[in-house]
Write a structure and sequence with these properties.
Layout: H1 11-26, H2 31-46, H3 61-77, H4 94-103, H5 114-122
Helix pairs in contact: 1-2, 4-5
Length: about 120
């Protein structure tokens, strides 16, 4: 038998648990086990009892900061092909080298590999 009051669950969650429980019983699972599994499934799918709406749930500042940093890293990746100022050629991706070659109007750049782009940008070819 599941522990705790089920008063905080929505009607939809209660119906879902009942339906899941019936399904387990049809497969021969004992009644107590079926009920426990049903509520565990509802909890896993919906996160437990009824939640406060909108601003009632807050995210800790540390989690927000980590999300911002992660988002900033993703945003910098969307600048693909645009070299960062002061960056060494060896540290650039092929796309960044290609953009630089485009700006310098190097011919044959579309067929070049990364090493060839590096040499051409340094003026060795």
């Amino acid at each position: 038998m599941p522990r705790g009051s089920k008063d905080k669950y929505t009607a939809k969650q209660k119906r879902k648990a009942e339906h899941i429980e019936d399904s387990y019983k049809e497969r021969g699972v004992p009644e107590d086990e079926a009920e426990a599994r049903a509520w565990a499934t509802v909890n896993k799918q919906s996160g437990g009892g009824e939640k406060a709406g909108g601003s009632g749930r807050t995210t800790p500042p540390a989690v927000k900061q980590a999300a911002r940093e992660s988002s900033a890293r993703r945003a910098s990746k969307t600048r693909q092909g645009i070299p960062r100022p002061g960056q060494k050629l060896e540290a650039m991706s092929r796309d960044e080298l290609m953009e630089l070659a485009r700006k310098r109007d190097l011919s044959g750049r579309s067929r070049m590999r990364k090493q060839e782009l590096l040499e051409a940008l340094r003026g060795k070819s």
